[in-house]
Fold each of these.
Amino acid sequence: MEQLIYAIKNIEKCSIMPDEIIIDGKFYKRNIPVHLKTKLKRTYTLCEILFYILNKRSTSAEYLRSCNKNNISPIDYTDRKLLNDEINSYCSFDESNSVLDEIESRYICNKDFSYIFDILKNLENKKEEKIVLIDTFRIIVPSSVKSLITVNNVKDFLEKSKFLESNLEDIFCSSSKCTVSIDGVQFDVYDDVKSFTSEDWKSVVAIFVDGSSWQFKNWKDKNLAEIFCNTAVFFVRYDNMEMASEIQGYNIENVVVDKKNKSLKKEDFERIRKDILKVVELKRRL
């Protein structure tokens, strides 16, 4: 109960993961029963109540579909008003446009239709499409000799906040792949995407561009707008480098390197890492 009260008052610090709940950085089991003061039809778990609160702006239909998709049992409709009242006793809970507003009580049937959720789950499991959890995140860098970020120097750039200008010999002799770590998260970095599968593309969280359209010549069957919309994209450049007109309309963050000192500001490095980790967190929740 203490965890629930704290979560209600700090709902922005709560996340529901596949195997656990995170509340302000602390991990809890999803199936912890919550014994409320109000007598409800059944005892709900911490996960079920938090999921209900996090979806309070959804319509009833949207909430039920979301419960089914995430394999979470919904709060019974007749319990929601009572639950809201108790939540309000701990913290103000805005009921406007919430899952309560879609059905009037006179239309509520007392029969148990929970079996419908079992049917929906079985149908979901029979779908041919397999759900693949992302276990490896990928970053793409240019293979161009004019790019300031390559496989050769990206590790120092992201891990040590160091910009080391690559020379031609290093670029031609280096591998087309390396591994970097940001705050404990591992990333595979590639400068060649020819062999990427559709699942590989789903795991791409960041792209470094060299400002040219040539970089994307092997991406002909890919929608750049869609890819760039779902990743963090950076153009690390000297102030005299320009971006090709073909890609100027996309959401690409310019990061300017001091050409004289060959350096970036500390906050630039931090912003890049933070933006990449934001995409990681979003893709983990898909």
Note: DSSP finds ten helices and eleven strands in the chain.
Amino acid sequence: MPTTDIVPYSIGVKKTTTFQSIELDPECLELTLVDDSKQTASKLDLAYILIKYIYVLQMKDKELPHVSRVGYLPVIDASPTEYSTINTILTRSKEIADKLELKYAVLVFDEAVYAKVQQVRWKEETFFNRFVVRFGEFHTIMTYLSAMSKIFEDGGLKVVFIESGIVNEGSIQGVLSGKHYNRSVSCHKIMYEALQRLRFQAFMDQMTEEDQEVMTSFIESMAGSFPEDKFLSDDIESPLMQQILESYELFIAESSSKSRTFAFWTMYIEMA
């Protein structure tokens, strides 16, 4: 393995970044941005919950990942948390970006190194103007799971996880912090689906018997067409589905205004 010369580097006085203030056109603030992909995803999520509410389904993913070419960087035989090593990494990244004629480069680091990389980047103008530094997907999700648990842990989330038996008391902190990644994701998925079912059941309970029959028939129809192409064209994009979503959202808004507990767990569903 080739040796790497690491130039000693001292961070000195730590520096934080400054954000520029941007004046927005008042007319722009009145615009309502509609994200079609988000709406479609919400429809699919709700449809999946409703279908699974009646039938147990096995999801099938027909999409294949795109072919990628992976290039491995030279190994630096030194501690990645040392400022000298971080400075060497950023310097080498700049050299690689120059060779590839990249104006900007995105650098991905894990949780242990990210903060120190930002400290070096904020102090060196060359690095600051050239690099976009972010978490990897794994650590981004893990941090998000931890943030969710911080909000809802004392509101009953911890008790539900333990009392339901999906997590034992000795493992609960690892699940809530996101450190036990797979179990944490699994627990939040189960919690999301359970709350979504309870909320939709409350929505159906306030309907007339005739409307409940129409709703049940539509859900059974979706279950019958899943996962065929007509599931998207005939069910998800149907006027009836849009009508159900509008009524459901109105019910959520009204119930949230009447009950803080309902609003609290609705926020969890939206975040999960």
Note: The beta strands are 105-109, 131-135.
Amino acid sequence: MSRPTGDPSIIKNGSDVSGLINGESAIGRGQELTGRRGNATTEGLTVRWKGAQGVAIAPKPNGTAVGKISIREGFRFQVGANPDQAVSVAMGNMSSSQLARGVKNESGFQSLADLDVRSTTGANDAIRVVDEAINQVATTRGSLGAFQRNTLESNLTSLRIASENMTSAESTIRDADMAKELATFTRNQIMTQSAMAQLAQANAMPQNVLRLLANQ
């Protein structure tokens, strides 16, 4: 590669990012890490390290952690009759030590668990932290409610319809078998009546012969 003036220049390539994803090995290419094939929870998962744009990052010794990634599968619900026919929903940590983290305040509150309202500043900052905690809880409740209504309840309706269709099909099959048995019963009844009629005619023949002889 050369500069616009045609003067050659040397490009020094950087190093590929390296690290683990959720404690499992990963392949680094540039700023992207991809979970290796065969990983239990991160196979094919790709994450990208994005440093602050326009800000130089000081070099760190090999093995120094610059970030942490955790994978949560959440709650898993089996919604069908087939294997792996399931859906998942994740819910964040709702403990007081994890709610409203990162809210800017002058009192140094790190989360909802750190509130101290013994001063005017602390009380004002506590309101900000509590408001953020309420927003986080409301957002989580909304997500769970949407999952319940749009996924679980709609799937339940589909399963009920499938169950009704299955019951109707079973009833149709049973009715068809009943018709077959009724036809067989009618056939046997006709054959029995025919046999009885033939037997009655056979018994009547000697009596008819005797009457003819008596009349002569």
Note: Residues 52-57 have pLDDT under 50 and may be disordered.
